[in-house]
Amino acid sequence: MAMFEIGPEDFLLDGERMQVVSGALHYFRVHPDQWADRIHKARLMGLNTIETYVPWNFHAPVPGVFDLDGRRDLGRFLDLVAAEGLHAIVRPGPYICAEWDGGGLPAWLLADPAVGVRRHEPGFLDAIGKYYASLLPLVAERQVTRGGPVLMVQIENEYGAYGDDPLPERQKYLRALVDLTRDQGIDVPLFTCDQANDEMLARGGLPELHKTATFGSRTTERFEVLRRHQPTGPLMCMEFWNGWFDSWGLEHHLAPAEANAADLDDLLRAGGSVNLYMFHGGTNFGLTSGANDKGIYRPIATSYDYDAPLAEDGSPTAKYWAMRDVIARHLPVASAEELGRDAETGTAPVLDVALTAHVTLPDILPGLLREEPRAFPHVPSTDDLELWSGFAVYRTGLRADDAVLSVGEIRDRAVVLVDGEQVGVLDRGSHTFAVALPARAGELTLLVEDQGRVNYGPRIGEPKGIIGPVRTAVRTLDEWQAAALRVEDAPELLRAALDAATDGGADGAAVAGLHRGTFDSVAGADHFLRLDGWTKGLAWVNGELLGRYWSLGPTHTLYVPGPLVRKQGNELVLLELHGAATRRASFVGAPDLGVTEQ
């Protein structure tokens, strides 16, 4: 069995110096049938290691459940890493950030106000202990010390950037995590990572754990900062930011390949180890994307392309080749013949789809209820409904003199309907907390959308939904009926309604609601779904929720992994929240991730 150690100057694999050249590849952002392809391309670029976070809430979406199957099969992913002859670094949190919903922390756990978020608090530590007991044994059996690929395991994540607990309390918490990790048979080296900042490195680690840093440029300066806090041992950039994520309403981020490659060259020439964040970004499928809030709430886009060396669809980019050339100056690099460097990238299938069957938004809501609506003598949060992600519906009565609806806060967005007619939107991002109401009595319905729980900063763990009070021009609205929805399963739940829907034709505008069309195409081929003319909603192909679309941009296409597509009888379903100028969608030959900042 192998031995991986942190030596006085270098990482040591069986006593020999190892310069770790790793790339971040999140199994949870890639279709499982494509894991092997992405891992293979990592080796061909010159990487010797794959790093992945583990999102706790992805495996434990509700209390009492821990899922390690299908998309969540971390063991299979690590086995594929080993089969490619690569090593692995595992970062299980409990907090991961990663622009993931809630930073990976389960909303159901943090809904209990007694639980101390990222602190030495019994309820939080007890839950982490159960999480580790469910997860870490499969990591332990795949450590290098047992013939597997795993070299190292991280403790927490950029902890120096969070909270204001005094240092002794912070270290007490980190040592508790170390004990919980070791209790599950993890015997490989443990480490922490923090931004290359003196204060954060001092607050985020332990004297007895190896410290790593995160940065994307100015290697010499950043390593000098890290060396002040890690006087001996190898220097490692655990997140070399070679790109950036996109948020709805902002531009698509690009980082020049030449600059990234030059910074990487500096890092490797200095003898440092590195983990590229990201090597391959992938996609925030379903409702998994997080959000940032630094005064303005900004949800993360569906595409997590990240301007990474390997694009969202697995295509090598100019950055891939530039970085491969750099790595080849310092370490042996495998032949790229299999990848076909000089081959032209083919276009994806191009076709139009008519979405002729539809059911209106008011008509679909009853069929999406997860449970019968409950009565509340106050406006509930979606946490009160035990809804940890997705959509909920709220209802109450209106009087003719109410005139305006205002809420204390909306987290994060609500379509406002009166007797089934849309009259406005409440929106956290634009600070729209009031809507004019028609001058008549009727039923008020709010379709509330959680657009992603905050994944960084002090607002981690906050409740979602409508945060009261809710007022009109003349009174406070206290009596509510509310229920969670199963929106993720909409095509399956409403299949009979769609089958019975009147064919609306392929021309004209589309109302808010569920829309369906079918198409034939190339089985197994990646597709790029473009929804020009549509406003905001969710998209499914063959029952798989691709994620959110939004005319706000920057992203103009949704990635459809080839394994989802068959030759005939494919189904495209859209949940359109507002209405569209068309009843058609298109599949285009290449992705369009939006206007850039350049």
UniProtKB/TrEMBL annotation:
It catalyses: Hydrolysis of terminal non-reducing beta-D-galactose residues in beta-D-galactosides. Residues 384-485 form the Beta-galactosidase 1-like first all-beta domain. It holds the Pfam family Glyco_hydro_35. It comes from the Bacteria. Residues 11-328 form the Glycoside hydrolase 35 catalytic domain. Gene3D superfamilies: Galactose-binding domain-like, Glycosidases. It is an enzyme of class 3 (hydrolase). Keywords: Glycosidase, Hydrolase. This is Beta-galactosidase. It comes from Promicromonospora alba.
